[in-house]
Amino acid sequence: MAKFCTKCGKELKDGVKFCPSCGAPVPNAGPNTQAPGTAGSWQNTGGMNTGNTPGDGGGNILSSASQSLKASNLPIKPIAIGVAALVVVVILFSFIFGGKGYEKPIKYLEDGINNADLETFLKAFDSDIAKYYSGYGEDSFIDEMDDYSISLKIVDKERIDKDDLKETLKDDYGIKASTARKATDGYILEIEGELTEDDETDESEFEIVVIKIDGEWKIPTNFFL
Question: Engineered SS bond to 128: which of 37, 115, 138, 221, CB 3.0-4.6 Å?
Answer without folding.
Answer: 221
